Amino acid sequence: MQQARYYLLGERAVVLELSPPVTLPSQRRIWALAEKLNHHPDVLEVVPGMNNLTLLLNTPQADAEAMLALLQQGWDSEESLVPELREVDIPVVYGGEYGPDLDEVARHTGMTPQQVVECHSSAAYVVYFLGFQPGFSYMGGMPEKLATPRRAEPRLAVAAGSVGIGGSQTGIYPLVTPGGWQLIGRTPLSLFNPYDMPPTLLRPGDNVRFVPQKEGVC
Protein backbone atom coordinates (compact mmCIF):
# COMPACT_ATOMS: atom_id res chain seq x y z
CA MET A 1 0.00 0.00 0.00
CA GLN A 2 1.25 3.48 -0.86
CA GLN A 3 2.28 5.61 2.09
CA ALA A 4 0.53 8.97 2.35
CA ARG A 5 1.86 12.00 4.17
CA TYR A 6 0.11 15.25 4.97
CA TYR A 7 1.80 18.57 5.62
CA LEU A 8 1.47 22.35 5.62
CA LEU A 9 2.87 24.33 2.69
CA GLY A 10 3.40 27.90 3.78
CA GLU A 11 0.54 29.66 5.53
CA ARG A 12 -2.24 29.00 3.08
CA ALA A 13 -1.90 25.48 1.75
CA VAL A 14 -2.04 21.86 2.89
CA VAL A 15 -0.77 18.90 0.89
CA LEU A 16 -1.46 15.19 0.49
CA GLU A 17 1.54 13.44 -1.04
CA LEU A 18 1.78 9.75 -1.94
CA SER A 19 4.91 7.66 -2.16
CA PRO A 20 5.75 6.09 -5.56
CA PRO A 21 4.69 4.46 -7.76
CA VAL A 22 2.22 6.55 -9.72
CA THR A 23 -0.80 4.41 -10.53
CA LEU A 24 -4.13 5.04 -12.23
CA PRO A 25 -6.19 3.72 -9.25
CA SER A 26 -4.42 6.18 -6.93
CA GLN A 27 -4.92 8.98 -9.42
CA ARG A 28 -8.64 8.21 -9.58
CA ARG A 29 -8.80 8.53 -5.79
CA ILE A 30 -7.04 11.90 -6.03
CA TRP A 31 -9.58 13.04 -8.64
CA ALA A 32 -12.44 11.97 -6.37
CA LEU A 33 -10.98 13.78 -3.36
CA ALA A 34 -10.34 16.90 -5.45
CA GLU A 35 -13.93 16.93 -6.63
CA LYS A 36 -15.23 16.42 -3.11
CA LEU A 37 -13.17 19.25 -1.57
CA ASN A 38 -13.58 21.66 -4.46
CA HIS A 39 -16.70 23.13 -2.87
CA HIS A 40 -15.48 23.21 0.75
CA PRO A 41 -16.06 26.70 2.24
CA ASP A 42 -12.48 26.97 3.58
CA VAL A 43 -10.88 25.99 0.27
CA LEU A 44 -9.96 28.63 -2.29
CA GLU A 45 -8.58 26.25 -4.89
CA VAL A 46 -7.93 22.53 -5.30
CA VAL A 47 -4.79 21.56 -7.25
CA PRO A 48 -4.57 17.85 -8.12
CA GLY A 49 -1.15 16.68 -9.23
CA MET A 50 0.46 13.34 -9.97
CA ASN A 51 0.44 11.41 -6.68
CA ASN A 52 -0.42 14.58 -4.75
CA LEU A 53 -3.21 17.01 -3.96
CA THR A 54 -2.81 20.60 -2.72
CA LEU A 55 -5.52 22.69 -1.07
CA LEU A 56 -5.14 26.46 -1.15
CA LEU A 57 -7.01 27.93 1.83
CA ASN A 58 -9.12 31.06 1.89
CA THR A 59 -7.29 32.54 4.87
CA PRO A 60 -3.81 31.99 6.35
CA GLN A 61 -3.77 28.85 8.50
CA ALA A 62 -7.58 28.67 8.50
CA ASP A 63 -8.06 25.52 10.57
CA ALA A 64 -5.05 24.02 8.82
CA GLU A 65 -4.89 21.08 11.22
CA ALA A 66 -8.57 20.38 10.58
CA MET A 67 -7.94 20.51 6.83
CA LEU A 68 -5.05 18.06 7.17
CA ALA A 69 -7.38 15.72 9.04
CA LEU A 70 -9.99 16.21 6.31
CA LEU A 71 -7.44 15.24 3.67
CA GLN A 72 -6.54 12.09 5.58
CA GLN A 73 -10.17 11.18 6.16
CA GLY A 74 -10.95 11.71 2.48
CA TRP A 75 -8.00 9.60 1.32
CA ASP A 76 -8.79 6.81 3.75
CA SER A 77 -12.38 6.64 2.44
CA GLU A 78 -10.92 5.15 -0.78
CA GLU A 79 -13.54 6.86 -2.95
CA SER A 80 -12.67 6.74 -6.64
CA LEU A 81 -13.68 8.86 -9.61
CA VAL A 82 -13.67 7.62 -13.19
CA PRO A 83 -14.19 10.65 -15.47
CA GLU A 84 -16.34 10.55 -18.57
CA LEU A 85 -14.57 8.29 -21.05
CA ARG A 86 -13.04 10.27 -23.92
CA GLU A 87 -10.80 8.86 -26.62
CA VAL A 88 -8.54 11.52 -28.13
CA ASP A 89 -6.26 10.94 -31.14
CA ILE A 90 -3.30 13.30 -31.45
CA PRO A 91 -1.80 13.51 -34.97
CA VAL A 92 1.99 13.88 -34.76
CA VAL A 93 4.72 14.52 -37.30
CA TYR A 94 7.73 12.75 -35.80
CA GLY A 95 11.37 13.70 -36.32
CA GLY A 96 13.01 16.26 -38.56
CA GLU A 97 12.50 19.92 -37.66
CA TYR A 98 9.44 18.96 -35.62
CA GLY A 99 11.23 16.35 -33.51
CA PRO A 100 14.88 17.42 -33.26
CA ASP A 101 15.64 15.06 -30.36
CA LEU A 102 14.24 11.90 -31.92
CA ASP A 103 17.73 10.67 -32.81
CA GLU A 104 18.95 11.34 -29.25
CA VAL A 105 16.07 9.34 -27.78
CA ALA A 106 16.87 6.53 -30.22
CA ARG A 107 20.54 6.58 -29.21
CA HIS A 108 19.72 6.57 -25.50
CA THR A 109 17.19 3.74 -25.75
CA GLY A 110 19.16 1.61 -28.20
CA MET A 111 16.43 1.79 -30.82
CA THR A 112 16.23 3.16 -34.32
CA PRO A 113 14.26 6.39 -34.77
CA GLN A 114 11.50 4.43 -36.50
CA GLN A 115 11.30 2.00 -33.59
CA VAL A 116 10.95 4.93 -31.18
CA VAL A 117 8.06 6.28 -33.27
CA GLU A 118 6.39 2.89 -33.42
CA CYS A 119 6.80 2.32 -29.69
CA HIS A 120 5.60 5.80 -28.72
CA SER A 121 2.58 5.74 -31.03
CA SER A 122 1.48 2.19 -30.19
CA ALA A 123 1.01 2.84 -26.46
CA ALA A 124 -2.27 3.82 -24.79
CA TYR A 125 -1.94 6.87 -22.54
CA VAL A 126 -4.06 8.39 -19.79
CA VAL A 127 -3.96 12.07 -18.85
CA TYR A 128 -3.20 12.17 -15.11
CA PHE A 129 -3.24 15.93 -14.62
CA LEU A 130 -2.68 19.30 -16.28
CA GLY A 131 0.10 21.58 -15.06
CA PHE A 132 3.22 23.63 -15.80
CA GLN A 133 1.28 25.51 -18.51
CA PRO A 134 -2.45 25.79 -19.25
CA GLY A 135 -3.28 22.56 -21.04
CA PHE A 136 0.09 20.84 -20.55
CA SER A 137 -0.83 17.21 -19.99
CA TYR A 138 1.18 14.80 -17.86
CA MET A 139 0.37 11.30 -19.09
CA GLY A 140 0.80 7.82 -17.74
CA GLY A 141 1.32 4.82 -19.96
CA MET A 142 4.57 5.52 -21.78
CA PRO A 143 6.60 2.31 -22.25
CA GLU A 144 9.50 2.19 -19.78
CA LYS A 145 12.00 1.50 -22.54
CA LEU A 146 11.38 4.98 -23.97
CA ALA A 147 12.39 6.76 -20.74
CA THR A 148 15.06 9.36 -21.54
CA PRO A 149 16.52 12.06 -19.25
CA ARG A 150 15.65 15.68 -19.90
CA ARG A 151 18.11 17.79 -21.86
CA ALA A 152 21.12 19.08 -19.95
CA GLU A 153 20.43 22.55 -21.35
CA PRO A 154 16.75 23.47 -21.77
CA ARG A 155 15.69 25.30 -24.91
CA LEU A 156 14.69 28.93 -24.54
CA ALA A 157 11.67 28.44 -26.81
CA VAL A 158 9.80 25.21 -27.53
CA ALA A 159 7.16 25.45 -30.25
CA ALA A 160 3.50 24.99 -29.35
CA GLY A 161 2.33 21.46 -30.11
CA SER A 162 5.73 19.89 -29.50
CA VAL A 163 5.57 16.32 -28.21
CA GLY A 164 8.31 15.52 -25.75
CA ILE A 165 9.72 12.88 -23.43
CA GLY A 166 10.92 13.89 -19.98
CA GLY A 167 12.19 10.98 -17.91
CA SER A 168 9.44 8.36 -17.79
CA GLN A 169 6.69 10.65 -19.09
CA THR A 170 5.48 12.09 -22.34
CA GLY A 171 3.55 15.31 -22.86
CA ILE A 172 2.62 18.08 -25.30
CA TYR A 173 3.63 21.73 -25.00
CA PRO A 174 0.46 23.79 -25.54
CA LEU A 175 2.21 27.17 -25.83
CA VAL A 176 5.62 28.52 -26.81
CA THR A 177 7.78 28.27 -23.70
CA PRO A 178 11.25 27.35 -22.46
CA GLY A 179 11.51 23.61 -21.92
CA GLY A 180 13.92 20.77 -21.31
CA TRP A 181 12.05 17.71 -22.54
CA GLN A 182 13.38 15.69 -25.48
CA LEU A 183 11.32 16.75 -28.50
CA ILE A 184 10.34 13.87 -30.78
CA GLY A 185 7.50 15.38 -32.82
CA ARG A 186 4.80 18.02 -33.12
CA THR A 187 1.03 18.10 -33.47
CA PRO A 188 -0.93 20.75 -35.38
CA LEU A 189 -3.74 20.60 -32.82
CA SER A 190 -4.33 23.51 -30.45
CA LEU A 191 -4.01 22.31 -26.85
CA PHE A 192 -5.19 25.55 -25.23
CA ASN A 193 -7.57 28.28 -26.31
CA PRO A 194 -8.80 30.69 -23.61
CA TYR A 195 -11.88 31.49 -25.71
CA ASP A 196 -13.08 27.89 -25.76
CA MET A 197 -15.05 26.23 -22.98
CA PRO A 198 -13.40 24.21 -21.67
CA PRO A 199 -10.20 25.98 -22.79
CA THR A 200 -8.04 22.83 -22.89
CA LEU A 201 -8.21 20.09 -25.49
CA LEU A 202 -7.23 17.39 -22.99
CA ARG A 203 -8.69 16.71 -19.56
CA PRO A 204 -7.67 14.45 -16.67
CA GLY A 205 -8.85 10.91 -17.37
CA ASP A 206 -8.71 11.19 -21.16
CA ASN A 207 -7.40 8.20 -23.11
CA VAL A 208 -4.87 9.41 -25.66
CA ARG A 209 -3.20 7.87 -28.68
CA PHE A 210 -0.54 9.48 -30.85
CA VAL A 211 -1.08 8.95 -34.59
CA PRO A 212 1.97 9.36 -36.87
CA GLN A 213 1.47 11.76 -39.78
CA LYS A 214 3.50 12.62 -42.85
CA GLU A 215 5.61 15.79 -42.82
CA GLY A 216 3.72 18.86 -43.97
CA VAL A 217 0.75 18.46 -41.64
CA CYS A 218 2.09 20.91 -39.02
UniProtKB/TrEMBL annotation:
GO function terms (MF aspect): 5-oxoprolinase (ATP-hydrolyzing) activity; ATP binding
Keyword terms: ATP-binding, Hydrolase, Nucleotide-binding
Entry EC no(s): 3.5.2.9
Pfam families: CT_C_D (PF02682)
Domain Carboxyltransferase, first and last residues per copy: 4-202
InterPro entries found in the cross-reference section: CT_C_D (IPR003833), Cyclophilin-like_dom_sf (IPR029000), PxpB (IPR010016)
Top-level lineage group: Bacteria
Keyword Hydrolase appears in the UniProt entry: yes
Stated name of the protein: 5-oxoprolinase subunit PxpB
Native source species: Serratia inhibens
Lineage of origin: Bacteria, Pseudomonadati, Pseudomonadota, Gammaproteobacteria, Enterobacterales
Gene: pxpB
